[in-house]
Amino acid sequence: MGLITGLLTLPLAPVRGTAWLAERIQEQAEAELYDESSIRAGLMELEEAREAGSMAPEEIDAAENDLIERLIEIRGLGREERNGPVK
C-alpha cells in the first residue's frame, strides 16, 4: 500500500480493525463450539445435574441431544476432511 493510499484510507482503519477483531472472535467461538473436550465436559455436567436433580429431565434430554448432535457433526466433518466428500 502506497503512502497516498494509506493516507486516503486512514479514516477506515477503525472499521478494518473492528472487522478483523470480529473475524477472530468468530473463529474462537467456532473452535469452542466444535471442541470435543468441551462437549464431553458439557455431557458430564448434565449427568451431574441429573444426579443432583437440579434440572428438569426434559431440559437435560434436550441439552444432551444438542451436544450429541454437535459431536456427531464434528466426527462426520473430520471423516469427510480425511477421506474427501461422501458420495
Walk me through what this model shows:
- The N and C termini lie far apart (45 Å).
- By secondary structure, the chain is mainly alpha-helical.
- It has one domain.
- Helix 3 (36-52) packs antiparallel against helix 4 (57-83).
- The mean pLDDT is 84.
- It contains 4 helices and no strands.
- The longest helix is centred in the last third of the chain and has 27 residues, at 57-83.
Number of strands: 0
Q: Unreliable stretches, pLDDT < 50, 5 or more residues?
A: none
Shape: elongated
Spell the H/E element sequence.
HHHH
Q: Radius of gyration in whole Å, from Cα?
A: 21 Å
Helix content, binned percent: over 70%
What percent strand? Answer: under 5%
What is the number of helices?
4
Please sum up the structure shown:
The chain has one domain (19-79).
Brief descriptors of the model:
87 residues, mainly alpha
Question: What is the topology?
Answer:
Blueprint: H1 3-8, H2 13-33, H3 36-52, H4 57-83
